[in-house]
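seq:
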Amino acid sequence: MTEPSAVRPPIQATDWAVDILTKAHVAATRFNPDARIRVTALDGNVQAVLTDTAEPGDSEYALGEVTILVQEGLEGLLDVEEPHDRLVLRPAGSTPNPH
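struct:
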């Protein structure tokens, strides 16, 4: 009998993305303890927005010490690009940006 293969979650994140999202979450919860980060797509770009409620279909994913909400249908590798620490969503299995 073969061992079941590990199932990769639809969203993964680089250490750099986890660091950026964690800092944003810590800052946001200073002003609103209920603040959550929601990763969503708008006009073909991924973005992290602050919210205090999930949208229908959102999934929760633990990234390090923070749990984020992810819009239904998004999958791949959350990564960061310069300039300005811009969040991007790459296809699953992509090589992360060096940091």
